[in-house]
Design brief:
The structure holds two protein chains of two kinds. Chain A is mostly helical. Chain A is 75% helix and 0% strand. Chain B has two domains: 178 residues, 3-Layer(aba) Sandwich (Rossmann fold); 72 residues, no CATH class. Chain B has eight helices and 13 strands. In chain B, strand 5 and strand 6 form a beta hairpin. The chains are: A mainly alpha, B alpha/beta.
Chain lengths: 341, 262
């Protein structure tokens, strides 16, 4: 085994280990202190001395940990696909206007139609987020045939994001106070939006979309050299770009619908995966990004519940703490990092 | 046997400025005989890149026809085309985080399956391509760590790994120092002799390139067309001077380059 393949294996193993360590921790840590033996009993279906403890573990901690891992992986893969598609290391789901589109959909549901968040159903929020994200993706794909340059398309995405933000501000301005409150809470991000009954659906869609991304390893690698070289080895670049846009849009929409607009994970995790594995080759990088994304999602979820007696902190208060140092490190070391230039 | 021929080809842009069609070059009856190296010579903005893009199928011709390997170019699918002609461009690309052998392996994509896994035969071809351009010792280096000359050799190795009869290069030595320019030209000449490749390249660097060129395509700037012929005869009959009409330069056959008119 060469040094390089060994480095790939070590990185993938470390990411997996972090997942394996953090997941059980999230079963134990939380705003309610539950003895270890009771957590174990709840997980294995044994006798739990208090019914409330069983409910907390089975209906809250398991779904939120699974949601955090899947959401982290989905956002990270969306970020990686967009970074390669646009040949831009700072591309990510929140920059492209997709998560803002989701937010707009949710804002319409919560502020214009529903009023207080409790009055509108979870499914309406979900539908709003999906519709908003898909609308932005369809506009981008339509623009993609008019704007051939990937950078210009990225700028179009950013501009559409601004338009959505302005619509959201207007909705907020005219909405009721309860509506604004529930929308603000949703916008802070949390991993508790997926109930135990909905978790299988959320997980199934996330896993299918993640598996679909693995089918793009070959064209993604070709795109690293730019569209002209990719076309020269037989990649239909416009079609592949549209497919990648739709896939990353669907991944982002799914997560935003369930957890709110979560920043930084999609932007930062692909860089963590590249730095750890030491490669831009998607055959290694994509699986590494999935694992690193799941690990990062779990880490954020753990930090959120650490100040246990005060309840759960919003996810978007945590992600910049992990994300910003990595981005600054990358900007400062840009000349030294292997995958630039 | 001709690898590529054009018949009354005109290239340019349909619906350019003011929606008018801009013909860049026309009346092109050109050919690339098998196992020859042809230089495309022309002034900046004379349409060299437009012609090369059209010949590679990246841009539709305005009129006339292109035949590659006895088939009309427009009948050849993108994937089949990938097995007929390989391209090398001037500018630096992304992909700095790939190793040299991973980059060269991208040239195997037209042959590999859905996920792009390399067979042992593919690996041998990659190793052979690295050896042919003389950068086997850099196989495990990152692209980002290469010099410009090594980088361009890697791109040529990538084109070789594509195992196409025809390789088209658009100013492959534009940003290289004289040593790298000469090395790359020697390398291309050797590929024609040893591997029977057919090579078409555009360049301004005649001093390095003419030594290995068999044939020339010269852009006649005044008549907006291309004159073809053997390197020796076109230099002898003064066709080279059609490259810069009305400019104070002339081709000097003793130094194989343009100089100021005496």
């Amino acid at each position: 085994m060469s040094l390089r393949t060994r480095r790939h294996t070590i990185a993938l193993t470390i990411f997996s280990l972090v997942i394996v360590i953090l997941f059980p921790l999230l079963m134990v840590v939380g705003s309610v202190d539950i003895p270890l033996r009771e957590v174990w009993a709840a997980l294995t279906g044994g006798d739990v001395s208090r019914e409330a403890w069983r409910v907390i573990v089975v209906d809250t901690r398991i779904p939120s940990a699974c949601t955090a891992a899947l959401a982290g992986a989905a956002l990270s893969v969306a970020g990686l696909l967009l970074q390669t598609t646009f040949d831009n290391p700072l591309a990510g789901p929140s920059i492209l206007g997709v998560s803002t589109g989701s937010s707009l959909g949710v804002a319409i549901v919560m502020l214009a139609l529903g009023g207080a968040g409790s009055l509108v159903g979870q499914s309406a929020v979900l539908a709003g987020a999906l519709a908003g994200a898909m609308l932005i993706m369809i506009i981008l794909v339509a623009m993609s045939s008019l704007v051939r340059s990937a950078t210009m398309l990225l700028i179009v995405g950013i501009l559409i994001g601004y338009l959505s933000s302005s619509a959201i501000s207007l909705l907020n301005f005219f909405a009721t106070q309860e509506g604004v409150h529930s929308y603000v809470i949703w916008g802070l991000g949390n991993f508790y939006g997926v109930s135990a009954e909905r978790l299988p659906w959320f997980a199934a869609i996330a896993i299918v979309l993640l598996a679909l991304s693995l089918l793009f390893i070959k064209p993604l690698n070709a795109l690293l050299l730019g569209t002209r070289y990719a076309e020269n080895v037989g990649v239909r670049t416009i079609r592949v770009r549209n497919q990648l846009l739709l896939l990353s849009g669907a991944l982002t929409a799914l997560v935003t619908a369930a957890c709110g607009p979560i920043g930084f994970i999609g932007l930062v995790v692909p860089h963590i995966a590249r730095l750890a594995t030491g490669t831009s080759n998607h055959a290694t990088l994509l699986p590494a990004t999935i694992l690193a994304g799941a690990a990062t999602g779990l880490l954020c979820a753990l930090i959120c519940v650490l100040p246990s007696q005060w309840g759960v902190m919003p996810v978007n208060a945590i992600t910049p703490i992990i994300g910003v140092p990595v981005i600054i490190y990358i900007i400062l070391r840009r000349r030294k990092i292997f995958y630039f230039n | 046997m001709e690898i590529l021929t054009t018949e009354n080809l005109s290239v340019g842009y349909a619906g350019g400025k003011n929606g008018r069609t801009a013909v860049v070059l026309s009346g092109l009856d050109l050919s690339l005989p098998e196992a020859t190296l042809t230089l495309l010579v022309g002034a900046n903005g004379s349409g060299k890149s437009t012609l090369l893009r059209t010949l590679s199928g990246a841009q539709a011709p305005l009129g006339g026809s292109i035949t590659v390997g006895n088939r009309p170019l427009h009948d050849i699918s993108l994937r089949q085309r990938a097995r007929l002609l390989a391209l090398v461009y001037t500018d630096r690309t992304g992909g700095g985080g790939l190793t040299v052998s991973e980059l060269v392996a991208l040239g195997r994509q037209p042959y590999t399956g859905f996920i792009g896994r390399l067979s042992s035969a593919d690996r041998d071809i990659v190793a052979g391509s690295l050896a042919a351009v003389g950068i086997s010792h850099k196989a495990d280096s990152y692209i980002a760590a290469l010099s410009d000359g090594e980088r361009q050799k890697a791109m040529i190795a990538r084109a070789l790994a594509q195992q196409t009869p025809l390789i088209i290069l658009d100013e492959p030595t534009a940003f290289l120092d004289i040593a790298s320019r000469l090395e790359i030209m020697q390398l291309l000449g050797a590929l024609v002799k040893n591997e029977q490749k057919t090579i078409l390249l555009s360049t301004h660097d005649l001093a390095s390139a003419l030594g290995v060129a068999d044939r020339l395509w010269i852009v006649d700037a005044l008549n907006r067309t291309v004159v073809q012929g053997s390197a020796g005869s076109l230099i002898a009959d003064g066709t080279m001077d059609k490259v810069f009409p009305g400019r104070n330069v002339t081709f000097n056959p003793y130094i194989n380059d343009f100089t100021i008119k005496a």
